[in-house]
Sequence to fold (224 residues):
Amino acid sequence: MKKFPGFEKRIGYRFRKKTLLEAALTHPSHRYENPELLADNQRLEFLGDSVLGLLAADRLSEKYPEAAEGELTQRKSSIASGRALAAAARELGMGEHLLLGRGEATNGGADRESNLEDVLEALLGAIWLDGGLKPARKFFEKHIFQPLEPTSLGLLNPKGTLQEYAQKNGFPIPVYRVVEESGPDHARHFMVEVTVNNFAYCGAGTGRRVAEKNAAEKAVRSLI
Fold:
């Protein structure tokens, strides 16, 4: 498919109906600027959200047959969180293929968490419509469940998880420091670095606590 070169190979699925792939990667802002387009990814995102919930519940029930409902719900919520799905979408490079309106693109829409979450769910919905359960489950397993599930509970409280990891391994407790602070008083932006056993990870956010949490999340994903 010329419009999205290499993308189908990257995701491991070749669409029979290319219009579904194009719709999945079309942000509403792009469709608004191109009224000849018949669809954007909103309806597919709605479908994909339900497909994701079904596949996650099925896979977690299979993997943890003795787990209580509360634990399964917690794991499912963590895997399906916006931040987790955005991280999975970034790993697939989906932002670079997302069709955006000019304003949305200029304002960083290709890396906006909500856009990445939506486009990943839309893609899952498109695969479901195009190929059914089997390829949708294969995509979910490879690109969502396997990368996200091992640290899913840890990502609910990444700072606590990181501290527990350090203590269990005899390392000093993680140290956080602000390495950059910018923006006006009403919209400050922070870059925070956390150091664990001589390894450093950075996270950004609109508040210091948010930046610390994002830095800890990167450390958890890398170390645990």
